[in-house]
Amino acid sequence: MFDLDKMFYRELKYIIYLVAFYVLGWGFTPYKPVFLGLAFGTCLSLFLLWTMVSKNRKLTKAAMEGTKMKSVGTLSRMATAALAVSVALQFPDALHLGSVIIGLMTIYFVIIIDFFIQHLRQK
């Protein structure tokens, strides 16, 4: 069965390795705005994963108790994306906008890849 905590920590590890790679790219290549944008977007993407996991825990608890939950956090995820884009637009010399957007989507790619890897391991 699916264990949310194991999944979260596994994906957290993947994201930390990815951000470390981006920091190395920022430090050793001339594409500093691109790699800084990827690192910034991926860090915010990690925050989005953490909020999704915490909301899922609260939703599960509410379902077990038979109560209703007010929200699952869609507005906070949209606000985080808007914040990332506004920071990238505020500092165009330091952050590449396209890289920030790709970094924001990173966690969804990591979730999909992790799902397929775990599915193949179970077979």
Automatic annotation (TrEMBL):
Lipid metabolism is among the record's keywords: no
Record keywords: Cell membrane, Membrane, Transmembrane, Transmembrane helix
The keyword Membrane belongs to this UniProt entry's keyword annotation: yes
Residue spans crossing the bilayer: 12-28, 34-53, 74-91, 97-117
Pfam hit, one: ATP-synt_I
Superkingdom of this protein's organism: Bacteria
InterPro entries documented for this protein: ATP_synth_I (IPR005598), ATP_synth_I_Bacilli (IPR039072)
GO CC terms: plasma membrane
Membrane topology designation: Multi-pass membrane protein
UniProt-annotated location(s): Cell membrane
PANTHER family assigned: ATP SYNTHASE PROTEIN I (PTHR40035:SF1)
Name of the protein in question: ATP synthase subunit
